[in-house]
């Protein structure tokens, strides 16, 4: 039996709609691979189950930067973000891509070629931040509060590309009953770890305790079952 961790119960756990890692289930409760992983970590650390708030990403990210006791997931651990927060990793790995419509000719031979095109991204998401960090003109980046809105910009012709996690985009495309063959990856911006990001003010020992619990879960048969549930073998 794990020792109870009252301090982990004092943190505020925030997430967003980002299938299959975190999303609102049919019963209205937070669900997904990362949510189940979090519940397993709580179990390992003797932490009573805590509320998880599902917010637009920009709101959750803002609270992570402003409040002293926030955990935000699933957060891509980029080079620019790394010193801003404390981290427990990994939840998983993601390819952040520029995706376009297959029937619209658009050739990128280097990332800079994409700077002349309009691109949809979720506000404050890793896709938008990678573009800005690489010198893209913010006037060319059309932001949305949620990924379905950004995808709609692409399919309606408002933008030429969308920047996001490839697996989450494909999951959304299938959920909206769109033909995956209509979409094509034009460029891979980055490959990143998805993690639990902690406010910088959270005590190092607490983050270490959470990481220890996470490492135990990742090595367990329970995690293999969770992973197979959300990423079934083809």
Task: Characterize this entry briefly.
The protein has 234 residues and is of the alpha/beta class.
CATH class placement of the largest domain:
Alpha Beta
Strand residue content:
25-35%
Please compute the radius of gyration using only Cα atoms: 18 Å
- CATH architecture level-2 label of the largest domain: 3-Layer(aba) Sandwich
The number of helical runs is 7
What would the average pLDDT be, to the nearest integer? 95
Q: Unreliable segments (pLDDT under 50, ≥5 consecutive)?
A: none
Structural class based on helices, strands and sheet pairing: alpha/beta
- Name the shape in a single word: globular
Kindly report the name of the CATH homologous superfamily of the largest domain: Periplasmic binding protein-like II
The multimeric state of the shown protein is single chain
- Give the topology string: H per helix, E per strand: EEEHEHEEEHEHEHEHH
- Cα separation of the termini: 37 Å
Verbal overview:
- This protein is of the alpha/beta class and 234 residues long.
- It has 7 helices and 10 strands.
- It folds into 2 domains: 8-93 and 193-230, D-Maltodextrin-Binding Protein, domain 2, CATH 3.40.190.10; 94-191, D-Maltodextrin-Binding Protein, domain 2 (3-Layer(aba) Sandwich), CATH 3.40.190.
- Helices cover 32% and strands 27% of the residues.
- The strands form 2 sheets. An 8-stranded mixed beta sheet has the order 4-1-5-10-6-9-7-8, sandwiched between helices.
- The longest helix has 15 residues, at 204-218.
Which properties best describe this structure?
two-stranded antiparallel sheet; eight-stranded mixed sheet; 234 residues; D-Maltodextrin-Binding Protein, domain 2; alpha/beta; globular; 10 strands; 7 helices
């Amino acid at each position: 039996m794990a020792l109870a961790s009252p301090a982990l119960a004092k943190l505020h756990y925030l997430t967003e709609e980002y299938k299959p890692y975190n999303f609102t289930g049919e019963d209205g409760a937070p669900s997904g691979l990362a949510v189940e992983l979090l519940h397993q970590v709580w179990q390992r650390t003797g932490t009573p189950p805590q509320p998880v708030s599902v917010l637009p990403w920009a709101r959750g990210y803002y609270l992570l930067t402003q409040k002293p006791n926030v955990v935000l997931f699933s957060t891509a651990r980029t080079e620019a973000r790394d010193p801003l927060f404390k981290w427990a990793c990994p939840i998983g790995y993601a390819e952040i891509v520029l995706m376009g419509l297959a029937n619209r000719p658009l050739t990128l031979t280097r990332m800079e070629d994409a700077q002349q095109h309009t691109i949809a991204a979720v506000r404050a998401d890793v896709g938008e931040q990678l573009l800005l960090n690489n010198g893209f003109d913010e006037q060319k980046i059309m932001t949305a509060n949620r990924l379905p809105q950004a995808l709609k910009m692409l399919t309606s012709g408002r933008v030429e590309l969308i920047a996001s996690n490839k697996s989450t985009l494909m999951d959304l495309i299938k959920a909206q009953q769109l033909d995956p063959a209509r979409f094509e990856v034009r460029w891979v911006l980055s490959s990143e770890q998805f993690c639990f990001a902690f406010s910088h003010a959270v005590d190092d020992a607490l983050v270490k305790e959470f990481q220890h619990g996470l490492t135990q879960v990742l090595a367990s048969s329970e995690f293999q079952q969770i992973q197979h549930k959300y990423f079934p073998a083809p």
